[in-house]
Specification:
CATH architecture of one domain: 3-Layer(aba) Sandwich
Distance between the termini: 21 Å
Oligomer: single chain
Shape: globular
Number of helices: 6
Largest sheet: 6 strands, mixed
Strand content: 25-35%
Amino acid sequence: MTKDKLGQQIKKASFLTGDFTLSSGKKSKYYFDKYLFETKPEILSALTKEIAKLLPPLRSFDRIAGPELGAIALAAALSIEIKKPFIIVRKTEKDYGTAKLVEGEVNKGEKVVLIEDILTSGKQAIVAADKLKQLGIEVIMILGVIDREEGASEAIRSAGYKYKSVFTKTELGT
């Protein structure tokens, strides 16, 4: 599937209009429901191929990181596509069992690419990246699927992280 066709499929599957409150707290007249494209195998498969094209050289990082919940399917699919392990960054440490903030095997000093789904302010991606950084894990890039073009790119770069997105709102024609 071409990137343009993929963008059309993502928009068709997930673009909603109405009155929405985003995770950033902002109000919006439109919404990309990530679960409506991430749960479709044909879209997820094509999307992981497009994400893979934007990755730095595979030898330059050890793992994929996906913040819960939205980016887990992306991280898992990308992990399979590029044959690299992935980890899950929790929003908060669980208060039972192992009480981990990061699920999956990861070691201090390793390098990861953090995958995110829809970015508005970039806050959630930065929080996840900062959590990893505090554990001694280097985030060499944050890579998003859709940049709503509302400040995420600037905020992520200002926080000291490299950033790329597969699509922007403009590219999807919204």
